[in-house]
Design brief:
By secondary structure, the chain is an alpha/beta fold. It contains nine helices and 13 strands. The structure holds 1-O-phosphono-alpha-D-mannopyranose. The site of 1-O-phosphono-alpha-D-mannopyranose has 15 residues, from loops.
């Protein structure tokens, strides 16, 4: 069945002109400036692209943040994309409906988590930074997010922290300390943004979402996505887009920022 988004009627997934193609985007610094709403021109471009291919995003952040950046109070972000993969796909929506997900706390267990989080809190307490704000650990469904300055930092405070962090390697050293303290815990540490790092089980990186795309062909009338494009900015080794960008199942595209991303979309899909 065709879906209506705003005033436009979208062809069903199986009737899109490039039927076997899905295009996935990272969010921060690919579709929008971090923590800032996407520009209307970008949203229009994505809407035009969605008339040709299946469209999705795969971000490290949780859905609430992607709603702020890509949706509006009137428009749920889950209506703007065919596939919404938050927390690397640990929280997933297909055509507006939630898909099955895993949980970080179930994976790690309460006892192990308590030891881990106790170490983090001690480390945070001893860290001397120019300023500190609030929400230093964000507990999510598929990961935890740790921020030395705190997630309540303003946009200006984030920008200043990012420079300080680059110079003093605050997050890098924090991660080194965690690896040293918990050598066999099976966790991955990923610096995907400006002020924090994500912690999740090994393998729960952005490639996690590809299982949902691969499963599409098994659904009644489902599409076999033989071409999966991925656009992201942190595609270098160690960046949180690296694994999905380099994965043999995707065609990876590295972008500098949202403007560069828009340029590449227009060129690749004749928009
Ligand atoms: O999407 C990239 C990252 O965005 C945020 O990072 P920060 O607040 O440090 O800029 C976080 O939501 C993080 O989880 C995510 O990977």
């Amino acid at each position: 069945m065709a879906a209506t988004v705003g005033a436009t009627v979208l062809p069903p997934l199986a009737d899109r002109p490039l039927k076997n193609t899905v295009v996935l985007f990272d969010v921060d610094n690919t579709l929008t400036v971090p923590r800032v709403p996407a520009k209307p021109e970008m949203l229009q471009l994505l809407s035009a692209l969605r008339h040709k291919v299946a469209l999705g995003f795969v971000g490290g952040s949780d859905l609430a943040k992607q709603q702020e950046q890509l949706g509006t109070p009137e428009i749920p972000v889950t209506t703007l994309f065919d596939f919404c993969f938050s927390e690397n796909g640990l929280t997933a929506y297909r055509l507006g409906a939630p898909l099955a997900s895993h949980s970080f706390i179930k994976w790690i267990g309460e006892e192990q988590y308590k030891k881990f989080v106790r170490f983090i809190m001690h480390y945070l307490a001893d860290l001397d930074l120019p300023i500190k704000r609030g929400t230093f650990i964000e507990f999510r469904n598929g990961m935890i997010n740790v921020s030395p300055i705190g997630r309540n930092a303003s946009v200006q405070e984030r920008n200043e922290y990012q420079k300080y962090d680059l110079e003093h390697r605050i997050r890098e050293k924090f991660i080194e300390a965690l690896k040293k303290e918990f050598p066999d815990i099976g966790l991955t540490y990923s610096i995907g943004g400006q002020i924090s790092f994500d912690v999740f089980p090994q393998g729960w990186n952005k490639t996690y979402c590809l299982q949902h795309i691969e499963n599409e062909k098994n659904l009644p009338g489902g599409v076999d996505y033989t071409t999966v494009h991925f656009f992201g900015d942190k595609t270098f080794e160690g960046g949180n887009d690296y694994e999905i960008y380099a994965d043999s199942r995707t065609v990876g595209h590295s972008v500098k920022d949202p403007e560069d991303c828009a340029k590449q979309i227009k060129e690749l899909f004749n928009l």
